[in-house]
Design brief:
Helix content: 40-55%
Structural class: alpha/beta
Radius of gyration: 28 Å
Number of domains: 3
CATH topology of the largest domain: Rossmann fold
Strand order of the largest sheet: 14-13-12-15-11-10-18-19-20
Oligomer: single chain
């Protein structure tokens, strides 16, 4: 990775209040040196800077980040003359200066009071600029800067790094109107969304509801469901958050490139040579996919690569238990169920109260978290659990069975697990603290035994003879295709099935799922479930044979 240069400019005129600029530099440098990614950054301090020094310093150092610590005014920034007295450089002059360096400088941080107006002027030419809207204390300014760089060196985007700095100031009780201001330029115009190729039709919804009414549908839920209903990142969890959390624990900034090298399998060129507006480059190098019209799908695809490689790396260099323990800390109590989890947890009672059978006897997921189980418990809906063991001295690469209210046991093919009064949740990738996550887990998944020896006959039979509705996956998800091959072999799914997605499938994807009897439905999950839920709520109670006869 090209080393990022952080140019720190300080100015402390004799006739202005003295600031602890040296202390700020030392604390920033100390924070950076504690990270494994220290070698990716270089601090260049320039003290007692005069206006005449600015052009030569910027020409010589060619920094990526320019950090000013000193005094500010609404009209500009305060530097110092050769004599040591204060000299204000107007905001318009600063804008003209940075216009000449806009192709190199990525971010400008003005850690000075009243620097919002100068920040806005500089922002005409620089992508990311941070200024202070009002006076800010010396200690608060230093804490903001230290936490900003701590997040940046951990691989966060400039916006995320700014957010972390603000969070620290929030904890200190700094008022909102005194907090730093983040300015970000639009790099390119957003691509207008194309109309869906195969949107859900009234007939489609009718067929899905008919399958629910007969109890012959199996929801198949992937990581995308955890991004449903627009919750904030600290309230949801998906492969994106897991990969990021694990990477931060390892101190890795550019996950996939650090582990796999360059060029990576995603593109045939090195990531540094990709176009500036490439969404893959933004995902790999900047931690964001905001420019991509399929942002969630793009982020999940990259996170899946990152997560497998990170887990494999830790497994080879340390222990897979370290991965499990790290992610277990992330799972416990910090995330809450969303509307989609609750929809499935409450659907059973809603349908049975109207006289219908269980809408599904089996619900399948490849997610690592326990959001579904939590949603069922919150709804007081009993369920049984079948889950896979990826590791362990005993029963490795086998399924375990945990009936409601009973002890966990090894499952057998002859065992009957389906019930008429409660559903079974099948966790194909395992439960918390033991799941399929590393590369070799995926390579060896369900290959050492025939699937008929691993899962009960009644579960396999309903899986293969029911309608399946895949949600939270992309049509080109290779891990999902592997699962389909393991469960169905070369056969098509028994009944007409559907995948709800918001991707742009290729011809290979279309042909694969078409041969499997799965129709690709192009829709946002939010919109799809809003419509589906409204139609289910509008269902009238099922009439008895006598009531039908009386008609």
């Amino acid at each position: 990775m090209t080393q990022k240069k952080i140019l720190i400019l300080t100015a402390g005129p004799d006739n202005e209040e003295r600031l602890h600029t040296n202390q700020e530099i030392k604390k920033i440098e100390k924070e950076l040196k504690q990270s494994k990614n220290w070698g990716n950054f270089k601090i260049i301090p320039e003290l007692a800077v005069t206006p005449e020094d600015l052009i030569p310093i910027l020409e010589t150092e060619k920094p990526d980040i320019v950090h000013f610590c000193g005094h500010g005014k609404e009209t500009g920034l305060v530097f110092q003359k050769e004599s040591g007295e204060a000299q204000t450089v107007k905001a318009e002059a600063l804008a003209s200066l940075f216009d000449k360096f806009k192709h190199k400088v990525e971010c400008v941080l003005l850690n000075a009071c009243y620097s919002e107006n100068p920040a806005k002027a500089i922002h005409q030419h620089i992508q990311y600029v941070i200024g202070m809207s009002n006076p800010i204390g010396d200690e608060a300014a230093i804490k903001f800067a230290v936490n900003f760089y701590a997040a940046l060196i951990a691989g966060r985007s400039y916006k995320d790094a700014y957010d972390f700095g603000r969070i620290v100031l929030d904890l200190l009780g700094i008022q909102d109107d005194l907090l730093p201001v983040f300015l970000e330029k639009e790099k390119s115009q957003p691509i207008p969304p194309k109309p869906p190729a195969n949107p859900p039709t009234p007939i489609h919804y009718a067929n899905v509801i008919k399958a629910f009414k007969s109890g012959r549908v199996i929801p198949f839920l992937g990581p995308g469901i955890n991004l449903y209903d627009g919750q904030q990142s600290n309230q949801r969890i998906s492969d994106i958050q897991l990969a990021d959390y694990l990477a931060r624990d390892l101190g890795m900034a550019n996950l996939y490139q650090d582990l796999v090298g360059s060029p990576c399998p995603v593109c045939l060129v090195s990531a540094k040579d990709l176009p500036a507006d490439c969404p893959v480059k933004k995902a790999l190098l900047e931690g964001t996919t905001a420019a991509c019209p399929l942002a969630n799908e793009q982020a999940l695809a990259v996170a899946k690569l990152n997560l497998q490689c990170l887990a494999q790396y830790v497994k080879l260099t340390s222990s897979i238990q370290e991965v499990y323990q790290t992610l277990h800390e992330l799972f416990i109590g910090r995330y809450r169920t969303n509307k989609l989890h609750k929809f499935f947890a409450n659907l059973t009672r809603e349908m049975t109260d109207k006289g219908y059978p269980l809408p599904y006897q089996l619900l399948v997921t490849t997610n690592y978290d326990d959001m579904l189980e939590r949603a069922f418990r919150e709804a007081s809906q009993p369920f049984d659990l079948v889950f896979y063991l990826a590791e362990g001295a005993e029963n490795k690469e086998r399924f375990q069975y945990h009936p409601d209210g009973e002890s966990v046991r090894l499952i057998t093919s002859k065992q009957e697990v389906l019930s008429s009064d409660r559903p079974v949740i099948l966790k194909l990738y395992g439960a918390i603290n033991n799941f399929v996550i590393a590369e070799d887990h995926h390579i060896n998944y369900l290959v050492k035994h025939e699937i008929e020896q691993l899962l009960p006959n009644d579960l396999l039979e309903i899986l293969r003879k029911s309608h399946n509705i895949f949600m939270g996956y992309s049509p080109n998800d290779m891990n999902l295709r592997l699962i389909v091959n393991r469960l169905w072999g070369e056969e098509a799914l028994g009944q007409k099935s559907w995948m709800i997605h918001q991707s742009k499938p290729g011809e290979l994807d279309k042909e694969f799922w078409n041969r499997r009897n799965v129709k690709l439905i192009d829709s946002k999950l939010e919109e799809y479930f809003t419509e589906l839920n409204q139609r289910i709520e509008a269902l009238t109670p099922k009439k008895s044979p006598y009531e039908l006869w009386r008609q």
